[in-house]
Amino acid sequence: MAELLGGFEQAVLVAVLRLGPDAYGRTILHDLQKSLKRTVSAGATYTTLDRLENRGLLRSKLAEGTPIRGGRPRRYYALTAHGVRALNEAHETLSAMWSSIQWPAKIAR
After folding, report:
1. Is the pLDDT of residue 1 over 60?
2. Is 57 in contact with 13 (CB distance < 8 Å)?
3. Among 14, 40, 66, 96, which one is most buried in terms of CB atoms within 10 A?
C-alpha cells in the first residue's frame, strides 16, 4: 500500500531531496519558503521532519559543532529508500490524477 503523504510532507521531502548533503533544518526551511512562495514556520518544519523520520522516510545525523554555532551540532537529513519510494508513489498518483484535466481548468456549466 502506498505511503500517504500530505502536501507539506511532500514539500519537505522534495526540499531534502533537492538540497542533498546540505539538507539541515534552516536550509530546508528556506528552501520551503522559496519553493512554496510563502512564510513557513520553523516549528511546522521541524515537527514535520521529526514525523517523517519517525515514519522511516528520513534519517538524520548530527555533525560536529562549529565555533559559529557556539559548538552546537547541526542535524542533517536524507531520504531513506522508503522515503524515495513514497515520494515517487505520491508523484505518480498526483500525475495520474491531474492528467485527466484539461488546462487551463474551467468551471463546468
Report:
1. no
2. yes
3. 40
